[in-house]
Amino acid sequence: MLVSPHILFNHCYGKYTIAAVNVFNMEQIHGLFAAAEYSSTPIIVQVTPVARNYAHPTMIMAMIKAAAKIYPKVVFSIHLDHGNETHALDAIDQGYTSVMIDASHDDFESNIQRTKTVVEAAHPRNVFVEAELGVLSGVEDDLSVAENHAKYTDPCQAKEFVDRSGCDSLAVAIGTSHGAYKFSGGKGLQFAVLEKIQQALPEFPLVLHGSSGVKRNDIDEINRLGGALLKNASGVTDEEIKKAIPYGICKVNIATDLRLLWTKVHRLFFAEHPDQFDPVVPGKMYMEAYKTFMIERFEVFGSKGKA
Ligand code: G3H
Ligand code: 13P
Ligand code: NA
Ligand code: ZN
């Protein structure tokens, strides 16, 4: 059942958090819906502009709608991740239940105005709008932000931003970054900043980007099988995610972990079966591993049994 994030966030605020998982292809959509059905967990299926262009916007939407038929019990939203105005308008027309306008790299005024423009297009059509204040480091789509250009969300600006833009949820920069190399400074999540944001915006749904766990074992395994990922790869710990929930983090974005999983499964399969070349075999293994991975995430997020 397709629902607005309003429903999901009203229910989960302060108690558990919703996995918002980036999908690019059919195997991931199967893995995600199979896990959500198995765990009776509400999910947000999200798609970046790069992913929409990879699969084709029509193709990715058709696959998600097909999954809704194949897994009819799953409660989910369809969200545009890191869009601009053009992507957002297009996603609204396509039937997305929510869109992110990411003008976080603009100055404060421009971020407000651009977010407001999308809100004015989205709200008459009951589409939910996520905006972002603050700048994460790392790579997202084709934009790369060096760590010294990252900026925590300013709690003093947060309320004014939400009031004036009219957004429905706020992505916050509290120390995470996109990709496999988070926290190279070793600082972790900034709970003091998060606490102040919640005080400024009580009961308002907050979003954590860059929430992949980037497990050490997976990095080591990929490297053992011929990969060359940096040794300092690191992610958000389960403890940090759990601790963030009472502060109003209602949505945790995950993309990198499932990309690493793809790499691990395929490297392992082809290393062990150098004579094989049928994509169906590792593809099936990836779907199964994806499902297992997400079932475990839902337990950590507390969303198991909440659909
Ligand atoms: O920020 C979200 C994703 O990690 C970026 O994924 O390759 O589709 O842009 P992308
Ligand atoms: P990760 O790179 O930690 O998976 O974050 C994904 C994200 O924030 C998508 O918007
Ligand atoms: Na951003
Ligand atoms: Zn993101």
From TrEMBL:
Active site positions: D81 (proton donor)
Pfam families, per database record: F_bP_aldolase
Keyword Metal-binding (UniProt): yes
The keyword DNA-binding belongs to this UniProt entry's keyword annotation: no
Binding site for Zn(2+) 2: D102, E132
Cofactor(s) of this protein: Zn(2+)
An individual GO BP term: carbohydrate metabolic process
Residues bound to dihydroxyacetone phosphate: G179, G210, S211, S212, N253, I254, A255, T256
Name of the molecule in the record: Class II fructose-bisphosphate aldolase
Species annotation: Paraflavisolibacter caeni
